[in-house]
Design brief:
alpha/beta, nine-stranded mixed β-sheet, two-stranded antiparallel ribbon, 7 helices, 27% helix
Length: 237
């Protein structure tokens, strides 16, 4: 692989993603930039891959300690190296761990770009296939386990396909979560929403804050809201 293509450079850090089960994509950057990290002291990044979301959280919150977990050993090794080469290595830790087996820890924020493709397939031939399928970690499992791991005023934040919004919201309600903030993501103004970012809390009295983000205002021209959201990260912004 071309070494230039295996390293994604942001304004304050670089992130190798040659060995990880999933490469850096728009979804991870969106949720890393959108999540409310302002009051978090202890953050859990579930399914970290190369660690880009954890690095973004470290950049945005100079006080947070971040645990990044994944079930793919190559992803954990690559995330660990990316953390060591960043300016926030002392606050970032990557571990080989199944989210459902995590115990005895409490977090202010649990954040994830969880696997999104549910085809019923159980025999996966590659780490990338495992990373894309939600058999080992789904948005629903993320919420179910989060009840054990969140502090009382903690937050769960994720990005999922828009067509799973109702399914995830219904499950969140059954688990006692309240939707506090959401953002529909559209490729352009005329396109239907493709993704939705969701923020849940166990305690929340205010109405849900509903947002919309359009990526391109015209072909090849990014919208101002997208530029503002990602302005601290993308070199082109």
């Amino acid at each position: 692989m071309d070494s230039r293509k295996s390293v994604f450079r942001f304004k304050q850090f670089k992130c190798s993603h040659a060995a990880s089960s999933m490469k850096i994509g728009v979804d991870a950057v969106l949720v890393g930039a959108w999540a409310d990290v302002s009051r978090a002291k202890c953050i859990l990044d579930v399914g970290t891959g190369c660690g880009v979301i954890a690095l973004m959280c470290a950049q945005r919150n100079p006080e947070a300690n971040i645990l990044a977990i994944d079930i793919d050993i190559n992803s954990v090794k690559e995330a660990s190296q990316n953390f060591l080469e960043s300016r926030w290595g002392n606050r970032l830790n990557a571990e080989l761990m199944d989210y459902m087996n995590l115990n005895d820890k409490k977090f202010d924020l649990i954040i994830s770009n969880p696997p999104f493709f549910n085809s019923g397939v159980k025999d996966f031939s590659s780490a990338r296939m495992v990373a894309r399928h939600d058999s080992s970690l789904s948005p629903l499992l993320l919420l179910t386990k989060a009840k054990e791991l969140l502090l009382s005023d903690g937050i769960v934040t994720m990005i999922v396909p828009f067509d799973r919004k109702t399914e995830v919201n219904n499950h969140a309600g059954r688990e006692g979560f309240i939707l506090s903030r959401c953002c529909e993501v559209k490729g352009n103004y005329n396109a239907p929403p493709k993704r939705i970012m969701l923020e849940y809390r166990l305690k929340h009295n205010a109405p849900c804050l509903n947002e919309e983000l359009v990526i391109e205002q015209a072909p090849g021209t990014y919208s101002e809201s997208y530029r503002q959201l990602c302005s601290d990260f993308y070199l082109a912004f």
